[in-house]
Amino acid sequence: MQDRRSGLVEALRRPRYEVIPLPGVEDGVAEHVPRHVKITVTASPKKGLEPTLELAERLSGEGFEVAPHLSARLIRDRAQLGEILARLRGAGIRDVFVVAGDAPEPAGEFEGSAALLGAMAEIGHGLEDVGITGYPESHPLISDEATIQAMYQKEPHATYITSQICFDTDTINNWVLRVRRRGVGLPIYVGMPGAVSMAKLVRISSNIGLGESARFLQKYGNWFWRMFMPGGYSPDALVEGVSDSLAHPERKVSGFHIYTFNEVQKTEAWRLAALERAGAKAHERHKEPTA
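Structure tokens predicted for Methylenetetrahydrofolate reductase (291 residues):
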């Protein structure tokens, strides 16, 4: 068991920030986010994969490590998959996050993430990292044991797990233990919201379209309504609660995946303040971590 403080500081120094490919986000990331913070870019069934790929390419060109989402249900076939992978490699992108996606019907042969992962392995994706989703809370359509079994089956094709947002630290920590007992050994990035204003959330909801807004609320509704509470929502308690798992190397909790909802300036300010509260020295807060 390592020191809780050192584990928490290391996780806060190496977060992953998730952004949505909407106007203005590229400038916000370039202005406010340090280059050692990895940026993940979501994919939208309304707009397709192209905005995701374009933003990922541009951010990579600006010196960021980027992990675009590859939505299985938005990819037609292996030919298109091969073109996408070649395009990403050409842009210096070495990490992707594979999801089934929210499109009501698949664009082609890939019904879900398992099929896409298998195809990527068969054609040779040439990437260093491939992420898959974890569900600390019960999925509305899939049992807990089924989601963990799915991770076990996907493990040979993946290198890490990113969890969906969950607000109960006991649920998160217990889920990590269940995943390990099942034999899944992939490192886990715990998903949590960043510092987001209600006004920003409403603007994003209107930009992603009515159907996607409904799915958004279904997915993040319990957090959305917390934004109406006095003072809004702070991830501080969640970070502190998860630090227990960070202190146990055998649990392989590698850090935080922060859903910024494009509020990157506020999220980065929160991260630096959280580092200070965790006892990080000034050079630890601002200096790029060593590999």
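The first strand starts at residue 16 and ends at 19.
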